Protein: GCN5-related N-acetyltransferase
Organism: Monoglobus pectinilyticus
Amino acid sequence: MVIIIGGASHSGKTFLSKKLIEKYKIPCTNLDHIKMGLIRGFNDCGFSAVDSDETIAEKMWGFIEGFIGTCIENNQNTILEGCYFPCEKVKKLLCDDLTVVFIVLSKQYIIENFDKIIKYENIVEDRKFPESREIKFFINENERIKEECIKYELPYFEITDNYFEGLEKILEYIKSKAVKICRYSHNDINEICSMFCDTVKHINKRDYTAEQIAAWMGGIDKDKWDKSLSEHFSLEVKVMGKIAAFGDIDGEYLDRLYVHKDFQGLGYGKIILDSLEEQAIQSGFKRIWTCASITAKGFFERYGYKVIKRQQVERKDVLLTNYVMEKHFEQEYSNGI
C-alpha cells in the first residue's frame, strides 16, 4: 500500500508521517527532498525553489505518478508526503492499494495558532531557511486545497481546534484502510511459519535458552500447520498486506496466537484474542483454554486468564515450560451475550 499525505506547507504532514513510520514500520519519502535533489542535480530541471507549489507539482507529477505505480506493482508499502499532489491527477490513481489523506488547517486555526505553526516548523526536521511567507499565504493555500479535495471527492481532514485530536482522527482513518482482519489462507502458510520463527527467536529468547528456542522452531511442520489452521477457526491481522498477528481456536482450545516481532505492543494480539473468544462464545462454549509460554503468560493474565498448572512439554528431546490457562465466560452469558 502507498499512503499519500498531502497538504499545504506547515500543515503537519511530516509529523504525521513520522507517527505512521513508528506505527507501521514502513519507509517514507518527502517530496521536498526529491524536489531539491532535482534542482541541485540538474542545470535545468524545469522549475526552481521559488516557483509556486502548483507549478512544481505540475512539473514533478510524471515522477510522482511513476513512483507510486512502481511501488504498487512491486507490493511495496511506503509513505509519500509533500505539497505536490494535484487533486485532479491523484483522483485518477485511486485504487485499493492507494490511501490518500490531505491535511487542511482552517482559517481560524491558522489565525489563532500562526506563531506556534512557525515556531514548531523544525520539530521533525531542521529547515535551513526560516519561514518568510505571511499568514495570508497559508490561509489561501489551505482553502485552495480544501476546495480541490471537495471538487474531486478526495479525503481531507480539517484541523479547526485541537491539532492532536485531528491527528488521531487521521491515524484512525488510515488504520481502517491499512489493517485488515481475515480468515487464514493456504497462500499464507510460508509467511506465517517465517513470522512464527522470527517471533520466537527474537521475542521468546528472553524466557528460554538458545537450545529451547532451536527446538521450539525446529518442531514446525508446514503441512501439519496448514492442515490444522485450515481445519480450525483461524484468523490473521494484516497490516498493509503483511501478517502482523495470527491465531486459531479448535473448539474451546486456543491453539496458537503470535504477533510479529515488529508489531509488538500495538494491540494486534488483542484483536485476535477478542475474535477467537467471540467465536468460542458463539459456538456455545463457556470457557476457553490454552497453553501459554512463559513470555505470553502475562498477556493472557491481563485479559482474565487464570493459571491451572505449570508444565513442561518436550520438543525434539528438549523440555520447555509453559502454562495451562483458562478463562470462563459465565459472566458474559449472564449478561445476555
Remarks:
- Residues 126 and 256 are 46 Å apart (CA to CA).
- The chain has two domains: 2-178, 184-334.
- The first helix runs from residue 13 to 24.
